Amino acid sequence: MPFVKKQKTNAYYSRYQVKFRRRRAGVTDYYQRKRLVKQAKNKYNAAKYRLVARITNKQVIAQVVYSTIAGDHILASAYSLELERFGCKAGFKNYAAAYATGLLCGRRALKKVGLFEQYTGVGDDEEDEVTGEIMSVSFGKRTFYVDELDEDRRPLRVNLDVGLARTSLGAKIFGVLKGASDAGLDIPHNHKKFPGYDPDEKEYDASVHKELIFAENIAEYMRILEQEDEESGTKTLEERFGSYVKAGVGADDLEEMWLAVHKAIREDPSYKHAESKKEREKNATHDKKYQHPRRKTKEERDASIQAKLDKIAAMEESEDEDEDDEEEEEDDE
User: Fold this and answer.
1) pLDDT of 76-124, one tens digit each?
2) Are 169 and 197 in contact (CB under 8 A)?
3) CATH 3.30.420.100 fits 24-268, yes or no
4) Scanning 5, 118, 120, 295, which has the fewest C-beta atoms within 10 Å of its C-beta?
5) Complete DSSP assignment for 112-128
6) What are phi and psi of 16, to 5 degrees?
7) Cβ-contact 181, 158 below 8 angstroms
8) Element at 160 (helix H, strand E)
9) Mutual orientation of helices 206-213 and 95-113 as an angle, nearest 10°?
10) pLDDT at residue 284 above 90?
11) pLDDT tens, 234-253?
12) 3-state DSSP assignment of residue 74
């Protein structure tokens, strides 16, 4: 057999270090996370906040998070299923829901840090309506992405964290960004990923973005299906928009519904419960959790086994007696 050179020695394997567990599982992009979390060396204990936007199969999640050596801490969070409490009757995962979830998370974060009154964002009243445009204010060499800059305090700077989601043009994660930006958070961004941007012409149409914020695309599709159902006699609208039909929301009601949701969020964005779930469970007068039965002792286990053996033995004896009786009857005959 010819001599075969050993490619990797034992020394190589002894100093081999595996990747992080979440990197091996493919759920964390550490290249991205390092740049979002890394703090400035000359700013001791100055947290870097990030807007974590996630889209699941059922809802939209938005969180304002800052990191420490001990782990991540959530400053504020919002879920699109909470929008039902603010007047949303159907549609908890579309672009309009993503915008409203970002708006709710942004208003909660500003309330937490004491900037709720200073930075109201865009759409606070009828005169200052949501247009889809990007608001920015320059002060010195810095640019703040807010409509107005307060003289006493700067806005809360937050960076967008998209995770593993693809940052395609018009993605719903940018709806979360726009909602949080209109809430009053300072989030660096531009219009190149928003709906309404034409990469060929390099032009941005804010009216297209506004239509998606108020679910005009869904309303238009509902009108098309409604017209087709009238002509062909089918029930396609009810099949595809069953939750809307059940809630009594039509194509003409969507814009009013989302306007009412935005207004309710701005009036009171607080959580449903003042206390956390852990505190509520601690103060609960009764325990709803399933209590496992007490484990049997050795004597109890032996007694249970013996009872089963006695039962089997009794059954066998009764079967033997029945067989004997049948044999006697056959002999008599």
Assistant:
1) 999 999 999 999 999 999 999 999 999 999 999 999 999 999 999 998 8
2) yes
3) yes
4) 5
5) HHT-TTT---S-SSSSS
6) -70, 135
7) no
8) strand 158-161
9) 90
10) no
11) 999 999 999 999 999 999 99
12) strand
CA nearest 265: which of 62, 127, 94? 62
Whether the pLDDT of residue 288 is over 70: the answer is no
Residue with tokens 């299906």: 225
The first and second tokens of residue 331, run together, are 């002999």
Q: Are 66 and 57 in contact (CB under 8 A)?
A: no
The count of other CB atoms within 10 Å of the CB of residue 154 is 15
Instruction: Look up residue 272 and give its two tokens.
Output: 């449903």
Structure tokens at 69: 């050596």
- How many angstroms separate the CA atoms of 119 and 129, rounded? 15
Closest listed residue to residue 185, CA positions, set 296, 110, 132: 110
Bridge-partner residues for 108, per DSSP? none
97 within 8 A of 91, measured Cβ to Cβ:
yes
Residue 256: both structure tokens together: 């009013």
**Rounded CA gap, 259 and 123, in Å?**
10
The number of helices, as runs of H, and strands, as runs of E, in the chain is 12, 8
Alpha-carbon distances, residue 280 vs 75, 85, 274, 275 (angstroms): 19, 20, 9, 6
Note whether 186 and 144 are within 8 A (CB): yes
- Residues 207-238: b if buried by 16+ CB within 10 A, e if exposed: ebbbbbbbbbbbbeebeebeeeeeeeeeeebe
> Which among 218, 216, 229, 270 has a CA at the least distance from the CA of 105?
270
User: Following DSSP, what letter does each residue of 132-153 receive, concatenated?
Assistant: SPPP-EEETTEEE-SSS--SS-
